Amino acid sequence: MVTKEDFGKRFKQIRLEKGVTEKEMGKAIGHTEKYIKNIENGVTLPTLRHFFRICDYFGITAYLFFRFDIDYPILFNELISECEKLNDDQKGMIINVTKDMIRANERRR
Question: In order of start, what are the domains of the chain with their CATH numbers?
Answer without folding.
Answer: 4-108 (1.10.260.40)
